[in-house]
Amino acid sequence: MNFAEELEKKRAYCEAVLKAYLPCPEDGEGGSQTGRVSHFAGKVTEAMRYSAEAGGKRLRPMFLSETCAMYGGRKKLAEPFMAALEMIHTYSLVHDDLPAMDNDDYRRGRLTTHKVYGDGMAVLAGDALLNYAYETAASAFDRAETAEETGRVIRALQLLMRNAGVHGMVGGQCADLEAEKKDKISAEELVYIHEHKTACLIDSGLSIGAILAGAPAADIEKLHTISSCIGLSFQIQDDILDVVGDEKELGKKTGMDAEDNKITYVTMYGLDAAREEVERLTGKATELYDSLTADNLFLRELLISLVGRTK
Amino acid sequence: MNFAEELEKKRAYCEAVLKAYLPCPEDGEGGSQTGRVSHFAGKVTEAMRYSAEAGGKRLRPMFLSETCAMYGGRKKLAEPFMAALEMIHTYSLVHDDLPAMDNDDYRRGRLTTHKVYGDGMAVLAGDALLNYAYETAASAFDRAETAEETGRVIRALQLLMRNAGVHGMVGGQCADLEAEKKDKISAEELVYIHEHKTACLIDSGLSIGAILAGAPAADIEKLHTISSCIGLSFQIQDDILDVVGDEKELGKKTGMDAEDNKITYVTMYGLDAAREEVERLTGKATELYDSLTADNLFLRELLISLVGRTK
Which residue from B214, B221, B237 is spatially nearest to B303, judged by alpha carbons? Predict the structure, then answer.
């Protein structure tokens, strides 16, 4: 099987796991692992599912699943965390798209949640997804079979939370929102934004999979650094694609950063230096990856492919 | 010491616990139990503190602290959950006040978070508070001294999450938002809204305190029912005060429900029947409370005082 086929198979698996964990209205279709929701809360449940089922590469749960498998961990422990991580990613997109934030009408070619359900319901749907992410992750306690596994679930849950909050993704979103008001930001600030907005949730993928599988502490440390390199280069690549990418292939408008006068890696350093930085970071990530005590060739190829991506 | 003095002392204690757990900017004052936040995320940290330090009765953490003490539980386990519960309550107010939701400029006589920090930052501050609530609650794992205590923290965390999400408070907020669009709602729907929007977080107070202290299962079951009665009567009392309350004493405008054509217990049943329902529910709650295996006279008086409250 080639890489593209394998990637699609794994993407479909991540999506199936997510769907199985999303809440269902009591009178609706589909199966939910964590109970049906009263029809009085049917609208927010529908908005949660609409937001989460918008497609996407499902990279974060895939990272989680792959590092867990690589260290011989159990799928049963990983799956609630896979769904939870994708719910966190989804909630951040729903709130980012709000008129109060980026004010986007479309995402991946579909109307954004607030355009379909209204601004108030989109605020609630985002809140509900974040909360449900933790309900879902915490359901892994009921699947732990030993005190050792319970301990791993505790550490995984604490990392999932920290990476999503004010010390993680929300911190990056705050700095990003503040940067929009400024004419100039420092290189340090730009790195802070990228590392927190993007790298933190990648770390939740790579590191939590390893934690749940009981990987050696030194490997988990390396995975944190790999996440930081991959997250940063992924975001720089996003900035590059906004300048040179193909709108059809990307499924979104390009040239938006220039239109918004946004300070990016490209505006700060130029296209060539941005491309070199992506190569440098990926080189560092690959070197560290190759020094891990376990191996997963698919994951290695996936991480490298993120550099050369065109969408 | 009389009840009013005791109440104020306990309120101040709850507030001190909350303050100790709120995140601090790295260059700011005050102590945080869970680490300082980068100055790049200083604005959202400031907005979180502004929102949480707006005052209030701090009833939910007080309930938690009181039932935990009543069953001989440890403060060290209760305190992270007290702070977490008040952060959840606060985030819900920040998002409720947004223009996309209730569009309120003032709360407790102060400008609302979005009026001070802007709509986008208020969305983020609410998200950050919800996330930090769980980070804070999950820090209780590091304080558990036995496997038994770890098990209690797991159950407490799972209940905290469920009561806040789509099966709990957010479910109630969704139904409430939907009801605003309708001319008529059923009595069943009105009870659903009140029980979920209000009673669920009261349950997180009363029940989690008991769970952390290892209270008997039968008592925890009764506390769920007591929470439901108290939450419902608390909300009906809110509807009553909006009609007959004193603006100065309440610190907010009255007559708002009528202005908004809102369907409340009072519009559905009339003032007298609403008052009778408050009495009936409180009677039921008191009876159940008196059948618990432990006793706490202050908490009993506090629960009863919620019926007769004028603010």
Answer: B237
Q: Which of A107-111, A254-258, B269-273 shows the lowest mean pLDDT across its residues?
A: A254-258
Which chain A residues have a beta carbon less than 8 Å from that of B41?
166-167, 170-172, 174-175, 196
Average pLDDT, chain A: 93
Residue A15 to residues A10, A85, A199, B63, Cα–Cα distance (Å): 9, 12, 21, 41
**What's the pLDDT tens digit per position in A214-247?**
999 999 999 999 999 999 998 899 899 989 887 8
How far apart are the CA of B6 and the nearest CA of chain A, in angstroms? 34
Task: Tell the CATH topology of A3-308.
Answer: Farnesyl Diphosphate Synthase (1.10.600)
Q: Which of A37, A95, A172 sits opposite B171 (nearest CB)?
A: A37
Mutate to test the interface with B, among A152, A158, A170, A188 (most CBs of B within 10 A): A170
Question: pLDDT at position A88, please?
Answer: 98
Query: pLDDT tens across B146-193, in order?
Result: 999 999 999 999 999 999 999 999 999 999 999 988 888 999 999 999
Question: Which of B124, B189, B196 has the highest number of chain A CBs within 10 A, making it the mutation to test binding with A?
Answer: B124
Q: How many CB pairs (< 8 A) connect A and B?
A: 184
Contact of A204 with chain B, judged by CB distance below 8 Å, is answered with no
Q: Does A127 touch chain B (CB under 8 A)?
A: yes
Residue in chain B lying closest to A119 (CA): B100
Q: Residue ranges per domain, chain B?
A: 3-308
As beta bridge partners, residue A24 has A36
Chain A: residue nearest B40 by CA? A175
Least CA distance to A45: which residue of chain B?
B166
Q: Cβ of B70 under 8 Å from any chain A Cβ?
A: no
B130 contact residues in A (CB cutoff 8 A): 127, 130-131
Neighbours of A267 (CB within 10 A): 16
pTM, entire model: 0.95
Residues A132 and A48: their CA atoms lie apart, in Å, by 10
Q: What is the CA radius of gyration of chain B?
A: 19
The token pair at A53 is 């089922």
Q: What is the 3-state secondary structure (H, E, C) of chain B?
A: CCHHHHHHHHHHHHHHHHHHHCCEECCCCCCCCCCEECHHHHHHHHHHHHHHCCCCCCHHHHHHHHHHHHCCCCHHHHHHHHHHHHHHHHHHHHHHHCCCCCCCCEECCEECHHHHHCHHHHHHHHHHHHHHHHHHHHHHHHHCCCHHHHHHHHHHHHHHHHHHCCCCHHHHHHHHHHHCCCCCCCHHHHHHHHHHHHHHHHHHHHHHHHHHCCCCHHHHHHHHHHHHHHHHHHHHHHHHHHHHCCHHHHCCCCCHHHHCCCCCHHHHHCHHHHHHHHHHHHHHHHHHHHCCCCCCHHHHHHHHHHHHCCC
- State which residue of chain B sits closest to A102, comparing Cα positions: B120
Among B154, B167, B185, B196, pick the best mutation site for testing chain A contact (most A Cβ within 10 A): B167
- How far away is chain A from the Cα of B300, in angstroms, using its nearest Cα? 32
What is the tens place of the pLDDT at every residue in B97-149?
A: 999 999 999 998 899 999 999 999 999 999 999 999 999 999 999 999 999 99
